[in-house]
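Reference record:
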Amino acid sequence: MPYVNTKVILDKANKEYYAVPAFNINNLEFLQAILDGAVAENAPVIIETSEGAIKYAGGGDPYLGAEIFVEMVRRYAERLPIPVSLHLDHGKHLEYIMAAIKAGYGSVMIDASDKPFEENMAITKKVVEIAHAAGVSVEAELGTLAGIEDNVKSAESILVNPEEAEQFVKETGVDFLAPAIGTSHGAFKFKGEPKLDIERLKEVKKRTGIPLVLHGASSVPQDMVELANQYGAKLEGVKGVPGELLVETVKGGINKVNTDTDLRISFLAGLRKYLTENPEQFDPRKYLGEGKKYVTDVVRARLRLLGASGKA
């Protein structure tokens, strides 16, 4: 199936009331593991890269990094029976956004959520005009998420205003919107009982009607945390968004669920276990391959949870 614009995947999810996970990658192994899981579930999938991942892949050159990811994802997608898209997550700098657009990403995110509302709207509108002219769809964010992840950092959460969301979508022409409803970035999401503002989410959906995105949505599977810790990791107190709460967000209008931490922890667990049990092994295809298996299992579970399995 051809490599597609992310809008193709999310418009279908919006019409049919399910969500598609968007998985962050930094290298080939994670891409392979994610695609193996999506094919096994006959599900559409969105691959994401951060600005940091692009910088890493290109040795500091964002244009080279973006081209490498597009070429890699496109080559695999063309040989698979499922729709695959590539998205720039949390685009903060115009240079990286332009690099992704020029390289052929299916969508880009402009994250100006740390700016005042009017400034966020003006910046987003400018990016939408540029991206749409190149046939690339755009995601933006309203409100802010606490936590740290790659190039995103905030000390507090500010929940989205539904009335502002309606105005924002109308004036910018953005294709997808990430409304802040109480999640946070990283592996330490809740100090107490997990809680999200589902009613606020429903109101944003009612007022905008477009595909909505949930950031900071990793569930941090505790069996993977325990396995990683068993083999030498130190991941104490990590907590994610429970699966049942994610299902509620999908019912409330979420169509794209970002996932990064789950994959990292699962890969780490598999890698640490294999290296500990096979101290003589030095072939990276062996130990990296073991980590991939754990990532694929998490991907498959995520696709089933969000209702994307069988929707290719």
About this structure: The chain has one domain: 6-306. The first strand starts at residue 20 and ends at 24.
